[in-house]
Write a structure and sequence with these properties.
Blueprint: H1 6-16, H2 25-38, H3 44-57, H4 64-80, H5 99-114, H6 132-140, H7 144-167, H8 170-180, H9 203-219
Helix pairs in contact: 1-3, 3-4, 7-9, 8-9
Length: 225
C-alpha cells in the first residue's frame, strides 16, 4: 500500500470503530504515516478484506500489525506450496542464455504467487518425465543448466508453432484478439491445474485451449471436439 491509500483503509475501519479516527488533523496525519509504514508491503484489496474478516471474528479494535501479520502468514502459505523454480515452458519468450531476463522472470513469478495473482507451482506440476533424482543427478553432473536451456528452446518452438496455427485462420485470430487483445499471446498455453488437484479459475485458459484445439483440428483435417 502507498500512503495515499491509507485514508481509504482508515475510513473502512472507522465504520466498525469510529474511535479510530482522531479529530486533531496532526494526530490523523501521524496515524496515517504509522499505518503506511506498517502496511507498505500489503496490497490495498487484501488489507480491506482483512479488516472485514477481523471484525467478523473479533470485537477488539484492529491494529495495522494485525493486517501485516495476516498478510505474512498468507504469503508464507502460498510460497510453501511453490517450488520457486524457473519453469521454461511458462516463459517461451525468455532466451535461456539471457541471465538478466531469467532473473526478471523468476522475480515476477515469485511476486505473482506471493500476491495471489497466479497459483503456486507444486513439485508435481513440473514435468512428470523428470524425477527429483534426475534433477539431482543432472545438477551433480553439471548438466542441469543445459537441460533447462534445451527445454526452454523446445517450449519456445512449440509456442511459436501453436501461435502460427491459430493466426493462420482469420476467424480464430479474431476470437483470440477478442479474448486477449492483438499481439498479447506468445503461444503459451498454461497447464490445466484441475488435473493436478489445484484450484483452476482460469476461464480465459479454457477459452484459449478451445481456440488452440480448433486450430489443431483444422490442421489435421478433422472436426473439432
Amino acid at each position: 500500500m502507498n500512503p495515499s491509500q491509507i485514508p481509504q483503509l482508515l475510513k473502512q475501519v472507522s465504520y466498525a470503530d469510529p474511535r479510530l479516527l482522531p479529530d486533531d488533523e496532526k494526530e490523523l496525519q501521524g496515524l496515517t504515516a504509522l499505518w503506511a509504514t506498517v502496511l507498505r508491503d500489503v496490497p490495498i484489496d487484501y488489507a480491506m478484506q482483512a479488516v472485514g474478516e477481523h471484525y467478523a471474528a473479533s470485537p477488539f479494535p484492529i491494529k495495522p500489525s494485525d493486517i501485516a501479520d495476516r498478510w505474512r502468514t498468507t504469503v508464507r502459505d502460498r510460497m510453501r506450496q511453490h517450488t520457486g523454480t524457473f519453469e521454461p515452458t511458462e516463459h517461451p519468450d525468455v532466451d535461456p542464455d539471457d541471465v538478466p531476463a531469467y532473473h526478471a522472470a523468476l522475480r515476477a513469478d515469485t511476486r505473482a504467487v506471493a500476491h495471489g495473482q497466479r497459483q503456486p507451482t507444486p513439485a508435481r506440476a513440473i514435468t512428470s518425465a523428470v524425477t527429483q533424482a534426475d534433477v539431482a543427478a543432472m545438477r551433480q553432473q553439471k548438466d542441469l543448466a543445459a537441460y533447462i536451456k534445451q527445454i526452454g528452446r523446445e517450449a519456445a518452438q512449440r509456442c511459436a508453432a501453436r501461435r502460427a496455427a491459430v493466426l493462420r485462420h482469420p476467424d480464430l485470430t479474431e476470437r483470440l484478439h477478442a479474448l486477449l487483445g492483438p499481439g498479447q499471446w506468445n503461444g503459451y498455453l498454461a497447464p490445466d491445474l484441475d488435473s493436478l488437484g489445484q484450484p483452476n479459475d482460469s476461464h480465459i485458459r479454457r477459452q484459449l485451449a478451445a481456440i488452440v484445439a480448433e486450430a489443431e483440428a483444422r490442421a489435421e483435417g478433422r472436426p473439432a471436439a
